[in-house]
User: What shape does this take?
Amino acid sequence: MAAPTTGTGLARATGALFVVGAVTFAAAATVLSSTFGWPDILREPAAVVLPAFVAGGTNLILTWFATAWTYALLAVPILLLPAVLGRRNDAVLRAATLVGAASVLLSLIGFLRWVFVVPPLARSYAAGDPITQAAVAAAWTAQHQFGGALLGEHLGQLLVIGWSVTLSVIILRSRVLPGWLGVAGLVVSALYLLNQGDVLATAVPGFPVWDLAGLLGSTGWGLWVAALGVTILLRPARTQSSSPTTEAPGADGADGVSAVDTRFGSTPTATRPAQAGSRS
Assistant: This one.
């Protein structure tokens, strides 16, 4: 009787962390948008960004700090999800989980440079003469393209899109969660991917950009993560260590009911033999 309780507790903690991470990050990002013009200001030159950063003072630095660590919170439920879904032995999901956790780390680096790298540059720019300002502007552009455009926005977003697409496909194929969640995940991931045009345009002038891709993609993805968390909270799963593929008849009982179908409370179905085929 202890195993179901532990599994249910893990599922509830994972679902809650998805919801809390998505909501708190959205709140911090909203404050950042209203006080610093993020994310539009990311595409402005140093002469615009650095004086605005200095004007924001300590509160702006703390807002960036909160934005970074509320997003980083998502790494925990991403790592716990395979156990919650009873798919610890699913090699594809395990690989996607590592990719998702890596994406959070890359985005965290992109966010935290505004806490540890940008402040001294901004102060030097504000107090410097034209020669100093030109040097600082060059240094700021270099770190901005590397830590922001490359690590946070390009790699961070691509990897998290890879995680959400893989999870969505697994949901649709295994029915371990409601199918609508898988469809929604694919849609918001596609929208989010279109934001890469804006990122690539920082290195390739004239690259096609859809201005709404970032807003629609990031907002839709955040809502999908929150919906994922709520779904897990409403349909807590037991921790399973068995293979993610369909169980052989009799594995869960004399009638051969599939473990994937029963642990989320859906209508049991008889098992069948597996068939061939298959912004910072």
Residues 1-6, 236-278 have pLDDT under 50 and may be disordered. Residues 2-244 form one domain. Residues 33 and 39 are 7 Å apart (CA to CA). The radius of gyration is 22 Å.
